[in-house]
């Protein structure tokens, strides 16, 4: 399955933040939106980072409660690993596992086209395996 197909089923919505938003505001948004990460984009819409629950925890451990008043640009992951629409679920699962990351922004050229989580990819693999098992059962039953 291609990432484009997954996003067409899941949706292309991506929650973004600006680099100057506070960590406190981002934690409230992560909670309210029930997501694990926000893509950080500059005023021109270019992806400049990603901030996840892990980044927030790391900042709290490092700076204590004062981390909440820092701008997101101080704690975000700046070297953003991205995916493209034409990649496969399998290739992204491998990349995310190898690099120990849970969220990948999906780009179409320079435009942010969506975001996938490790959970999205695992769900897609399970659905694919269930479909294949069902198809095989039907084939065997038809004799």
Description:
With 143 residues, the protein is of the alpha/beta class. It is elongated. Helix content is 46%, strand content 20%. A 3-stranded mixed β-sheet has the order 1-2-3. The protein has one domain: CBS-domain (Roll). The protein contains 5 helices and 6 strands. α4 (89-99) crosses α5 (118-142). The model has no long low-confidence stretch (mean pLDDT 94). It has helices spanning 3-10, 23-33, 53-63, 89-99, 118-142; strands at residues 16-17, 37-41, 47-52, 83-84, 103-108, 111-117. α4 links the parallel β4 (83-84) and β5 (103-108).
Which short descriptors sum up this protein?
single chain; 143 residues; alpha/beta; CBS-domain; three-stranded mixed β-sheet; 6 strands; 20% strand; elongated
Topology:
Elements: H1 3-10, E1 16-17, H2 23-33, E2 37-41, E3 47-52, H3 53-63, E4 83-84, H4 89-99, E5 103-108, E6 111-117, H5 118-142
Summarize the structure.
With 143 residues, the protein is an alpha/beta fold. The chain is built from five helices and six strands, in the order αβαββαβαββα.
Largest sheet at a glance?
Answer: 3 strands, mixed
Strand content: 15-25%
Helix proportion range: 40-55%
**Alpha-beta content class:** alpha/beta
Give the topology string: H per helix, E per strand.
HEHEEHEHEEH
Shape: elongated
Poorly predicted parts: none
What is the CATH topology? CBS-domain
| Total DSSP helices | 5
CATH architecture descriptor:
Roll
Strand count? 6
Strands in their spatial order, largest beta sheet: 1-2-3
CATH classification class: Alpha Beta
Q: How many individual domains? A: 1
Radius of gyration over all CA atoms, rounded? 18 Å
CA-to-CA gap between the ends? 28 Å
């Amino acid at each position: 399955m291609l990432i484009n197909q997954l996003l067409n089923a899941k949706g292309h919505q991506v929650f973004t933040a600006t680099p100057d938003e506070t960590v406190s505001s981002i934690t409230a948004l992560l909670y309210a939106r029930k997501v694990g990460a926000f893509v950080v984009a500059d005023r021109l819409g270019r992806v400049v980072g990603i901030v996840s629950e892990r980044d927030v925890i790391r900042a709290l451990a490092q700076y204590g409660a004062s981390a909440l008043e820092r701008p997101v640009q101080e704690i975000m992951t700046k070297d953003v690993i991205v995916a493209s629409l034409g990649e496969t679920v399998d290739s992204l699962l491998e990349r995310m596992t190898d690099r120990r990351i849970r969220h990948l922004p999906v780009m179409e050229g320079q435009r942010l086209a969506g975001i996938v989580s490790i959970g999205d990819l695992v769900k897609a693999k399970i659905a694919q395996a269930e479909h294949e098992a069902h198809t095989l059962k039907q084939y065997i039953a038809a004799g």
